[in-house]
Amino acid sequence: MENPNTLNHLLALEGLSKETVTSILDHAVGFKEVSKRRIKKVPPLRGVTVVLFFIENSTRTRISFEVAAKRLSADTLNFSASTSSLSKGETLLDTAKNLMAMQPDIIVMRHFAPGAAKFLSERIPAGIVNAGDGPHAHPTQALLDMYTMRERKGRLEGLEVAIVGDIAHSRVARSNIHGLLTMGAKVRLAGPRTMLPTMIDRFPVSVHDRIEPAIEGADVVMMLRIQKERMGKDLFPSDREYARVFGLDSQKLKLAKPDCLVMHPGPMNRGVEITPEVADSTQSVILEQVENGVAVRMAVLFMVARHLGVSEE
Amino acid sequence: MGETNKIEKRVIMDARAVELAVSDLAGRIRAASDEDQVCLIGIQTGGVYVAQRLHKAMEAVGFKDICFGRLDITLYRDDIFTALQQPVVRSTDIRFDLTGKNVILVDDVLYTGRTIRAALDALVDFGRPRRVRLAVLVDRGLREYPIQADFAGRTVNTDANETVQVELVEMGFERDRVVVYERQS
Question: Alpha-carbon torsion A144, A66, A286, A246, what sign?
């Protein structure tokens, strides 16, 4: 039977039960308080080694995981692309097997290849936490987004959430779609047709090629970053054109509910997908998202460690 | 919490006994304290409810400006990864520095002493209290750590295969009681 208070791995939100997602968010409530203390540290992961295995560059996600692990008293090791032998031709599995010589208990992993975290989880005896695998999944980002929505709105069930931008290239969007649907929220997607994924009609979401109908009456508007590095070719004519049609400004935001939350996973392209007025407005919870990310990642690491402890019995 | 798998054996306190025990605790704390100011820290979750009752009773015997906090000890447990029942981490809420304070730590039932050991570990992360004393509604014996209560509402002898449960109306029970259950495994 699935124990909703433990996680063997966290690879994606797809397939996680409502009870497990709720348990992660509930645990994060307790962990958020730890970061507000004068001594920001609690002992449960003493003796647990967490490897931060980041093959694709990421500063903020890595730092968030590192702070989370340290506040739980875990030992952290950093292993990133620039310092690794992967650039010398070693395979992912060989690198991971070498990592195992350090006896890590948990590997937090970011990789450019979709499915990389799952691949390792099937071959390596450690708890694997996916910190982003290409355009596939970024489960802790979606969890911190849902945590922020639930904290501000008191619920997820029935919330109208608009996700706007480059849906096709976004692991943040994909993980949020799975998580939000599991939790009973309603999801609307909007973006240029070149940025909407194929097969999206398999999901019970509404899809729009204009921003206005997506954000009308919404409880939450989540703006995605235009990821120039992931696009092989030009998918829209110009930044200015994108900002005019799909960027969120104060005028368009009036279509949403008056207390609508504005979210962004960062880093923002100010003046492209979001105007500075909106990003800095009272409706914006973008910095709360960052703060909640530490609490949610503490909850995930704790629940994975708990699974390791239980399975030793 | 499992309503299944346990059989009620005996009621050791009824509503009146709980009320008397709480006011008796407050009176004894008053008599043993030369200061008006104390901090009450309830241990999640049962201890918080008892601490709230005690708070009122202590105001009635002359304590002023009692600071009140809640402490979750889950992260400090010595069985955190091995306990069969895995409690969810609950919120700690101590919004003041404990340095120099007179702290009364409050729990519903004192049993092995492991919870209190964990609570003392947790408390030092919030400052260096002048003094920490322990008040419990029920001391059921069977200690596994060298820990004793400074104030106990009721002391009873129990077996290890029994559970002692404090049931208060604010926890959702019909009436205040303290009940001994037989643990079915």
Answer: negative
- Domains defined for chain A, CATH in brackets: 18-136+291-308 (3.40.50.1370), 139-289 (3.40.50.1370)
* Distance (Å) from the alpha carbon of B181 to chain A's nearest alpha carbon: 26
Using CA atoms of A294, A73, A3, A22 in order, give the dihedral in degrees to the nearest 10: -20
Q: What is the pLDDT of residue B2?
A: 45
Does B39 fall in a domain?
A: yes
Write out pLDDT tens, residues A221-239. 999 998 766 555 566 777 8
Residue B184 belongs to some domain of the structure: no
Q: What is the pTM of this model?
A: 0.90
Helix (H) or strand (E) holding A12: none
Least confident of A76-80, A93-97, A199-203, B104-108: A199-203
Assembly ipTM: 0.81
Q: Phi, psi at residue A152, to the nearest 5°?
A: -80, -35
CA distances from A268 to A171, A247, A278 (A): 16, 12, 12
Does residue B95 fall inside a structural domain? yes
pLDDT, tens digit, 9 for 90 and up, residues A268-278: 999 999 999 99
Whole-angstrom distance, CA of residue A52 vs CA of residue A76: 7
Domain range holding B103? 16-155
Which A residues in the span 60-89 are in contact with B, Cβ-Cβ below 8 Å?
Answer: none
Q: Taking CB atoms and an 8 Å cutoff, what residues of chain A touch B80? A: 44, 306, 309
Task: Return d(Cα B152, Cα B137) in angstroms, integer.
Answer: 6
